[in-house]
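Researcher: Let's try something more involved. This one mixes different molecule types, so please make sure each is placed in the same coordinate frame as the others.
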Amino acid sequence: MSTLSLAAHRVISALASTALVQFALASVILLQAGSVLAGQEALDSSGKVASASPDLSARSLADRIDRILTASWAAEKVEPAPAADDAEFLRRIFLDLAGKIPSAGEARAFLDDPNPDKRHTLIEHLLSRATFPAHFGRTLRDLMVPGATNNLQLQILIPQFESWLRLRLTDDTSYDKIVAELLTFTTPANMNPRANPLGGEPSPALFYLFNERKPENLAASTARLFLGIQVECAQCHNHPFARWKREEFWSFTAFFGGIDSGQPQNIFAAVQERSTRQGIKIPGSETTVEPRLLDGTNPNWSTGDTNRAMLARWVTAGENPFFARATVNRIWAHFFGRGLVDPVDDLDESNPPSHPEILDELARQFGYHKFDFKFLIRAITTTRAYQLSSQTTHASQDDPRHFARMPLRSMTADQLFDSLAQATGLEQQPISPRGADAVRLNSPKAAFQSKFTDPGISRTEYQATILQALTLMNGQIVSDATSLSRSENLQAILEAPFLDSAGRIESLFLATLTRRPTTAELAKMQHYIDRTDSEFARKQALSDVFWALLNSVEFVLNH
Amino acid sequence: MNRSKLRSPNSGFRIPHSTLRTSRRELLRLGVAGVVGFSFSGWLESLADDTATHPARRRSCILLWMTGGPSQMDTFDLKPGHENGGPFKETQSSVAGIRISEHLPQLAQHMESLAIVRSMTSKEGDHGRATYLLRTGYLQQGPIRYPALGSLVAKELGSPESELPNFVSVAPNRLFNQAAYGPGFLGSQFAPLVVGDALFGVQQPGQQGDFNLKVDDLSPPTGLDTKHADDRLELWSWLEQDFLSRHATPSAVSHRTAYDRAVRMMRSEAAKAFQLDEEPAALRDAYGRNRFGQGCLMARRLVERGVPFVEVTLTGVANNQALGWDTHANNFDSVRRLSEVLDPAWSTLMEDLKSRGLLDSTLVVWMGEFGRTPKINPNQGRDHYPQAWSAVLAGGGIHGGQVIGRTTPDGMAVNDRPVSVPDLLATICVALGIDPRKQNMSEVGRPIRIVDKDAQPIKEVLT
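Model: All components are placed in one shared frame. Result:
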């Protein structure tokens, strides 16, 4: 057995789905062949070449992405899925930009709107609503401090962190500035970090506590999050297959060497920067290394620079080849369930993008538009690719690297709870700029979310648990929502004098699945209701329809 | 092959042909994939190979999880006479020469089935980080979400067809680090079924009955008869099928599978495992009428029905102010109260398993996230201490009646046979017939071993 086929065998055995096997075999070969090309592409995205290409509008960028994808589909003989209809698009864009499904009223209004440009209008509307910074703040939080919501000690500081992100996103602060603020944060002298976190000032302090204020953890997180580079392995040893050597890791870590970690066990201790620049000692050796950037260059110090100010300037510089690429790749993954480079943390030469041209163009344009998230989001959500249906129409779409069909994506616990609340009329806490609604302990939302916590696997590899099934089938929220005596939402639909039973079924479909029932569905539901004889039994049957819809896979997934 | 030889590394035994072949294949596989620098250090790997493939070694594991970090000095490694020792006396166990706390008298009578590891050592003195380390075998760092031990075992030993879930967590207190209780990159299908979620899990004095040891939402809302439930499930199923026909993907199928399993469990005979009132009152009394005691009884009922991994958490007990074993103040009063719950529950579990012929196939593990300072603080408490502490292995796969390792007379350091956390977890795996070196694919596309490659199983405790 050759080396290559053994390696392929490993990939295959790691994949759960046999449908992906063929792709895996092909991709192993592609990976081998692609690594050389990827090196060139990385060069193409450096400042010099980039300055030659024009500044595109969001719509032109979307067109350019679609042209590249269309050409790749033709070359690979892929038949893309049909365009998503209005309802499918509506539900998807609400989940991706507002973090929850639309109400039945919003759905009806959009579906009945004859304006041909209504999708564009909706994207703009959703970007301007308070739900956008709230949802995107959570998205960035999950990115920057993954798993903090599950940690008792870190949880306390989540409202501060989320409200900081929300405020920045509300002000349209560009991402380079957000990241620079994060990287250079020190606890203000007049701030008592132990003060009630809910009353505490919005602050990125959580990032430091999450990384235990250890220079090596902060360096690894910074490289991974903002540069798409995994350097962790080099912390302890020279990895034979990775690019980064141990000395490079610690030289990069030295940028965080000025952080005072005098009280490592106290999560409330302030984050301070010692004023003097100094190197860091590699643990277990006598070698001290000076701060050095990951591209191998020495920092270009300015007077008064702290280590971290220097680092932040380099990370977020327009000519940094890593920052824009790593960021656009993550944002792409937010909307497509997987990155152009996947895993998203690994923008290494050995892991080339599926579409290098798209990655480069997005990165270039993101830089031109001053790292403006909304520009990027407008472009991505306007693409034909984003607006493809999730329905399986051809086997060639099964390879996720083609982006020829929108994959089914699992919701975050936040998205699911908020969508459930939306569909059932559960009272929702208003979005607060101070992030008070981010508090989780001891609320029904916390209890629900503990069962729907993200397992940390890819969004496109959703796996339901028995406990989740039990919660939605028999639990309080759905039971109350489908109870004839307790659910006001259901009452309203059942009692509305202007609705016949078809109208009531339609309302339930719009409230849950954001679409009208098909003819077959309507007939099936009608039959279910009509087989009963009493008025009460008919109402009960309608509540059963509601229950079945809330428990359906179509409700639980983003598609 | 002759297993008794395996216990002695110096007996000069030869690796049998079949084992060698397996190991070479493994070596090749890993080497070619470029995954690891493979160290082939001889017989331990062979031991793992042999036990992992032995058909008779299908086992279950009951983990008794001691939230907060139990005081080794007042349970399994007493230092009577030393100023660090505190007021507790030792009691002689059923095995000559092994003595444990006077507050664990019934358990002491099962010493022939118990192996005490007195030389546990780690560097993590923070609840959240140490909880993660002990429960997953790895430090929490970087983007990888490591699976809890229960999820790893469920994947190796569980059946996707079983009526009951393959990992059940009874009365967990996940406050210190919720991520340490999840399936990590293995995915939700290996998530624990939680019984009696105890966020602040303190048992109220005088609380009776099943102590809220319930599977949340296992029963439909009251008033829903089977016919009605079937009707709406049929409606649900029709909708589900419709969506699946248009979206034939594993994600969509997984939803249907979870519902099928949930409904199957709701209606199964096996779900009676959760009905403790089927047990004789005298036995329930013997386990102790408290969450932990009844949880141990439930663990036996689950293991009896083939569940491969059950964990029972001892967290709050009546009149104990500390959060579990986190006894920074009034350590001795708290540990005595906790021991009075632990002792009858654990010893009755041993007895019960033995009388049903389950002890040989059930590994019982006792551990918390770290130990406590030998030095007594001014509040009569003991603080976090990861340098030297104890864990206990018992039952199936374990050569009982022995003590592994030793601490110094003041309890401050391990001075014989240090055992790391990965060593302990590798030992648990081998005792269960699982190869700890086996790899699972992580979410970052890198294969991760069940237990870190440097881990050395404690060979002398394995049968």
